[in-house]
């Protein structure tokens, strides 16, 4: 297993793959900031007694003002766009990573820690200190496609390890908190019932599918076992491309199931961006390039075609 890990960690990757991951993560971050800013502003207006600083902001005695949070969100949006474009990446990327960390931490310092944001923030931090702007970057001189290198692979490997660790921790937490009863499906069934009932009582959006399924107890043991297998099985991505692809498919399906029965949206995972670091996503850019080339050729032929008469 040690040799497998060493070989996996030393894998080379093309600059285009790292750049496409940067674009995908950056584009997701742009949308995330737009949508999340409303929550950040709302929490900043809560009563002071609700403020319980955590993480890198644990030293704060008082929350940031709503005006300052709004200004930081605007700056973060601009930096996210520049991050995705790869513009002045060496300066923009670390600044964006720090600001995103501050904003998400401040938003989580009001009594509810949203772990769904962790992967995005950690991925941005890792990319910020990588050469992710060596391809498809605005303002950078065009050069020949760099040869695949460990310099472009290490960030993708670290991002993958972060995903693996996050899922393994989630699986262990299920077994620690639910014990063997989790595997029997009782804990999961009760959790689905409680979550949907609470949302109904609060007038929040709930899952009618989950509320209907709780009457069928026999469904929950296989679902509970499958969820633990997906989470604890995350390290199989170290074994090679086929294992990696199979696990990504299973993890994505797992989150579809969570959305269907509990109305809990893990958008970073469902969008596929959380898993982009594991896949040959440069093929997306190759297809776009090929399509543009064909479109350009077709336009040129049309322009050269003689008109009537």
Global geometry: globular
The count of domains is 2
* SSE pattern, N- to C-terminal: HHHHHHHHHHHHH
Largest sheet: none
Strand content: under 5%
Q: Given the helix and strand composition, which structural class is it?
A: mainly alpha
Helix content: 55-70%
Number of helices: 13
Please tell me how large the radius of gyration is: 23 Å
Straight-line distance between termini: 74 Å
Q: Please give the number of β-strands.
A: 0
The multimeric state of the shown protein is single chain
Highlighted features:
mainly alpha
Q: Would you kindly provide a written description of the structure presented here, covering whatever features stand out?
A:
The longest helix has 30 residues, at 15-44. The protein folds into two domains: 12-140, no CATH class; 164-283, no CATH class. The chain is mainly alpha-helical and 309 residues long. The protein contains 13 helices and no strands. The N and C termini lie far apart (74 Å).
Write the layout of secondary structure elements.
Blueprint: H1 2-9, H2 15-44, H3 66-85, H4 89-107, H5 118-128, H6 150-178, H7 180-184, H8 186-201, H9 208-213, H10 220-232, H11 241-262, H12 267-270, H13 282-304
Helix pairs in contact: 2-3, 2-4, 2-5, 2-6, 2-13, 3-4, 4-5, 5-6, 6-10, 10-11
